[in-house]
Amino acid sequence: MDSTAVIATSIQSACRDLGLAIPSDEDARHVIGMGLVQALQHAVPSAPQHMYEPLADRYRHYFLAQDQSIPLFAGAADTIAELHAAGYTLAVATGKSRKGLDRVMDSSGLRGYFHASRTADETFSKPHPAMLLELMDELGVPPEKVLMVGDTTHDLQMAINAGVDAVGMTYGAHPEEQLRELKPLALLDDFHELRSWFKAHA
To answer: φ, ψ for residue 54 (rounded to 5)?
Structure first.
């Protein structure tokens, strides 16, 4: 989902409401993919510890006001449907909460394509490998058969930590040069390129 701008501005608005230091666009975008409280701790490291839960509540206020209008990236739904039809086992590892993931799975109509999922309130947040390790265990898939597709350095680092291959997508919150430093199998610009890559390599 194309949620980068909504997430970043929600973090900044929440900080403004509570009189906390407002992170730059770059800092607010960098934490995308982490669990919410962990993300806020990184984006606003100067905040007193007791402020992170109220800050999370204000973030949710702003994010949920826009959540239903966040679009899928062009080609995302078709790519997911095509991979599912081709017999791939699909899973989600996300910094969202279970409640948040359930909401977008239903609003996007994509729930039926995925075989399993892990959220940041169920296990360790990215880039810890736990989400991928737990998904591999649940689905009975060995590391050499796994490909993590992600658009942040947290995604790619999680793949490294879990010992699985990864493809980076450049449309997300982190600059291409930061993704490149983590040496994914490929860096792709959109879902059309991803579908072509799968046909050639997977």
So the answer is: -60, -35
Q: Which long-range contacts (C-beta less than 8 Å, at least 24 apart) are formed by 170-178?
A: 171/2, 171/73, 172/4, 172/32, 173/4, 173/7, 173/8, 173/29, 173/30, 173/32, 173/33, 174/29, 174/30, 174/32, 178/153
Integer Cα distance of 48 and 53 in angstroms: 10
- State the DSSP code for 129: T
Say how far apart CA 142 and CA 164 lie, in whole Å.
9
DSSP 54-79: HHHHHHHHHHHTTGGGPPPPTTHHHH
Confidence of residue 9 (pLDDT cuts 50, 70, 90): very high
Coil vs helix vs strand at 148: strand
Residues 61-72: pLDDT tens digits? 999 898 878 899
**What is the three-class DSSP state of 94?**
strand
DSSP single-letter state for residue 32:
B
Tokens for 39? 């993300």
pTM (2 d.p.): 0.86
